[in-house]
Specification:
Order of helices and strands: EHHHEEE
Strand order of the largest sheet: 1-4-3-2
Number of strands: 4
Largest sheet: 4 strands, mixed
Distance between the termini: 27 Å
Strand content: 15-25%
Structural class: alpha+beta
Radius of gyration: 12 Å
Length: about 90
């Protein structure tokens, strides 16, 4: 998977770090950077494609191997990417 954008500094909330499978998080970060938006609905995937071209915020949805849902969000300036659980949002 070739990256389409830089993730910047990658951070994870304490809650997400405590609950998620770390190897699944690493895979999700690679998928996110390559433009694979995970389990987003079609509308959100299209929004991300637009946002990628227009330097807007990007948000993907994934599930780890324990079926924990989590988000990966990259800020518009690509300075920071955050991994978090829905409860952290």
């Amino acid at each position: 998977m070739k990256p389409k954008f830089e993730l910047g500094e990658t951070v994870i909330t304490r809650n997400a770090a405590d609950q998620l499978v770390s190897s699944d998080v690493m895979l999700a970060l690679r998928r996110h950077a390559s433009g694979d938006w995970g389990d987003c609905c079609v509308e959100d995937q299209k929004e991300n494609d637009f946002s990628l071209d227009h330097k807007l915020r990007l948000m993907s949805v994934y599930h780890d191997s324990n079926q924990n849902k989590f988000y990966v969000i990259t800020e518009h300036d690509r300075s920071v990417t955050t991994v978090l659980l829905p409860d952290d949002y």
